[in-house]
Structure formats: C-alpha cells, structure tokens
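An example makes the point: we print one protein in full, the chain in one-letter code, the fold tokenised, without further comment:
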Amino acid sequence: MVSPSVAMEQDNGAGHALSDFLMQLENYNSSIPEFVVAYYLNASGFESQDQRLIRLIALAAQKYLSDIANDALQHCKMRTNSQVTQSSKNQKGGPKEKKYVMTMDDLVPALQEYGITAKKPHYFV
C-alpha cells in the first residue's frame, strides 16, 4: 500500500510534468494550422477558446497523419524491394539514394491498418 505522502509526491511530479508539457505546447507550431483545426472542430460541434487545447488536437492530428504516412512509406519500400529487376542487379557504381513515390497501392494498406477504407475512383484504374 502506498503511503499518502508518497502519493502526493507522485501527484506533484505528474502536475509538474503536465505544466512543463503545456509550456512546451505554447511554443509549438504544428504543421496543421490552428485555424484549420479550429474550423473542423467548430464544424463538428466542438467550441473552445483555449488555444492550448486546439494546439493539442493539432499535435494529435499531425501525429496520426505522420504515422499513416510512415506506414505507407514502409509499404512502398517493401513493394519496390520486391520488384528487383535484372537491370538493377547489373548496375555498377556506388549505392544511390532511392526516391520513393507513394501511390494508392501503398496508401490503401496503411489506411486499412487504421480502419479507413479508401478506393481508387474508376476513372484512374
């Protein structure tokens, strides 16, 4: 059983960590503009004047999008590595930096991992 004094110290440590996080959040500039996040929050019926909360939601959305993009990149790398051609085996010279192109073939499986169904429109097939 935890003594009350130890529990209070843990609460103070958690409160200090939270206040530090909120201070860092005030100086953070998200890739998703705050007015875009605020617009979609208002469109969904959520109203808040607290900019820290809007920045926190923008940070969560940015993390979500970056995870999807990273998973799609991993799918792209696996797809391109499995498409090794005879000409690439015979190339001489040093290793070159590969450029990857994300296609719907890479994005669809990554989105499915997050429960999102995406399909190509018929006119792109």
About this structure: Residues 4-8 have pLDDT under 50 and may be disordered. The CA atoms of residues 26 and 123 lie 45 Å apart. The chain has five helices and no strands.
